[in-house]
Design brief:
Elements: H1 2-42, E1 47-53, E2 56-65, E3 69-78, E4 81-91, E5 97-104
Antiparallel strand pairs: 1-2, 2-3, 3-4, 4-5
Length: about 110
């Protein structure tokens, strides 16, 4: 009976961490979207911001990448879970042209 109880507690803990992980990923992607909109609005490849979200927080930073490109790095946090999204744009002058959007372990 005790092992069944511990198994249930373990399953609940795993489920909670998976939920936080999904929320942190969504937060990172939300900040990436906000950063892309900022690039589109200002036609510049620099800046940073942070957001408080219902289930966590996120921050992003934009830097130049080569002659006409940008790199956007966004971090989403929910509880103790951190997820990172990196977006690379080949151009940003008229509108951002995304060449890659991926989750990364570290920047």
């Amino acid at each position: 009976a005790v092992s069944l109880l511990l198994l249930g507690v373990d399953a609940a803990r795993t489920s909670f961490v998976l939920e936080q992980s999904a929320q942190a990923r969504a937060a990172a992607d939300a900040c990436a979207e906000v950063g892309l909109q900022a690039i589109n609005d200002t036609h510049t490849c620099s800046g940073s911001d942070s957001l408080a979200l219902p289930h966590g927080s996120c921050e992003y930073a934009v830097t130049t990448e080569g002659l006409l490109g940008c790199r956007l790095e966004a971090t989403g946090t929910t509880g103790n879970v951190v997820r990172r999204t990196q977006v690379v744009m080949s151009s940003y002058l008229l509108q951002p042209v995304v060449s890659s959007w991926r989750e990364v372990a570290n920047f």
